[in-house]
Amino acid sequence: MQLVNLHIFLVKLMGVYMGTKTNKDEIKSPFVYLLNSINGKYFYDVNRNEIVSITESTFNYLKKIQHGKVEEPTADVQKEIAYLRESGYLSEHKVREIRHPATDFLQEYLDRKVVKMTLQVTQSCNLRCSYCIYSDLNNEKQRTHTRKRMSLETAKEAVDFLLYHSGDCDEISISFYGGEPLLEIDLIREVITYAKRKFEGKRLMFSLTSNCTLLTQDILDFFVKEDIRLMVSIDGPERIHDNCRRFAADGSGTFRTVIKNINMIKDKYPNYLKRISVSMVINPQNQFSCINSLFIDYDVFEKMSVHSAIIDDVYSLEKVSYSDDYIQKINYQFFLAYLAQYKGIDMQGITPIAYEELERVNKIENSLESSNLLSDVTAPAGPCIPGQLRLFIDVDGNFFPCERVNENSSIMKIGDLTNGFDIRNAEQLLNVGRITSEECKNCWAFWHCTLCAKYADDSGKFNKEFKLSHCDQIRNSLKNSLLDIIMKREIAKLYMRRT
User: Fold this and answer.
1) Longest dimension (CA), the chain
2) Which residues share a beta bridge with 36?
3) Which residues of the chain have pLDDT under 70?
């Protein structure tokens, strides 16, 4: 009887949730997520935002507790748990109210701290890509391609607006977007001239996302002169690229045109290649080796950074699926990248797609151990400050938080050039976590959630179930990233022993 009472006292001290009712109160669970690698046992402590190594016996005990099994802990387990509790781990504390920390300062951010503006200079495009959310066939909620273009007057008003709302920023960025922005190259030239005059005395950077089919020698000369950062869309070798990215006029593939223009850059301005990045939209139904052959067969991409993303199907009628080949081979490439980071193997032959993933995991790792307990009042990590980091202005002068949201959605519109920012709408987007408040409070992925209002927008209204439908994907992705971080640390320890 004495041992049982001691056990109940210890479990209550831990705050471990049994999953069932005791003869007194329900016992709460520590806000942790258990992780298991080949070489060790761990938990991710949500309050501390840390990965913690524990013994196998303590891991098994916590696992049983989480499944509602009450049993006597061993003396070693009692000792380890007591030490962890004294060190600030295994807290059951959770957020009381979902409210973004920037809410009270939103007006100030939008009045003085807008750092980047993206201008939609046209809604027209000379391509018809199979996965494009603006296409007539693969479009569930977004606008379709139109002939609308931004007027010079609207563009100048946008530049003036950015000048007025970026007073606290030393560096300003203006980006050009479409459709295909090179269809409006004359407008882009005039906007850059105007912006340079207006922002004299501040560092002003320009960038542009293009399919690169309309690039000419004259446009290239202009890009180099103005030091414009260019992002080129290319999805793989010729067969894969042309299967997705075709000319609107005749349906023919665009790969050879893009490669010809990239080689023109290499021949004329080889140093400018460092200012170019590749935007690769990946269809994971394809074999990974075939996708990656682009970087093996064309050395022109060696100096470019690569930004890859799986096809975005949030607004698409056709949902994405993964082939077993893609999953197996990309995971193997990720593993090789981790080994290469610690000089275990030669970096040659590792896909740049894997290095981008490595950078993403490194970013998560660098954010670990950066806080104490969760505040009573805060919000999941997903939403940015709408309009402050990447204000998107469409051809008509309407404001959106970025270029990735639904332009037909009233809840995504955060103002316009005539009336300025709609603070009320911006605040709703900032605090989108409130529509899934209880689920967010209890989610172990709280610190690293990447769901913004886009994932709650169901044809112009917030939809709780639509937002929740993305949660498992976020948790699975974070779980894999934490396991990758554990693997990296285990590899690092192994490498240090050998040296």
Assistant:
1) 88
2) 41
3) 1-28, 136-141, 317, 343-347, 370-372, 498-499
Specify the amino acid at residue 74.
T
Buried b (16+ CB within 10 A) or exposed e, 472-498: eebbeebeebbbbbbbbbbbeeeeeee
Q: What pLDDT is attached to residue 466?
A: 95
**Residue 469: both structure tokens together:** 């439908």
- Element housing 125 (H / E): none
Domains and CATH numbers, the chain: 2-86 (no CATH), 113-351 (3.20.20.70)
Token reading at 468: 């929740």
List alpha helices for 234-302, DSSP H: 238-244, 255-268, 288-297
pLDDT of residue 275: 95
Residue with tokens 């501040």: 202
- How many CB atoms sit inside 10 A of residue 363's CB? 11
CA 324 to chain CA centroid, nearest Å: 24
CA dihedral 116, 119, 123, 124 (to 10 degrees): -110
R_g of the chain computed on alpha carbons? 26
125 and 145 in contact (C-beta within 8 Å)?
yes
Alpha-carbon distance 295 to 488, whole Å?
25
Shortest CA distance to 408 belongs to which of 135, 144, 80? 144
Rounded CA-CA distance 492/47 in Å is: 26
- How many C-alpha atoms does 20 have within 13 Å on its Cβ side? 8
Find, among 266, 243, 261, the residue nearest to 253 by Cα: 243
Report the C-alpha gap between 134 and 145 in whole angstroms: 6
Q: Residue 405 belongs to what H/E stretch? A: none
pLDDT, residue 19, reads 34
- CB-facing half-sphere around the CA of 228: CA atoms within 13 A: 26
The pLDDT tens digits for 158-177 are 999 999 999 999 999 999 99
pLDDT of residue 21: 36
Nearest CA to 56 out of 31, 38, 68, 70 is that of: 38
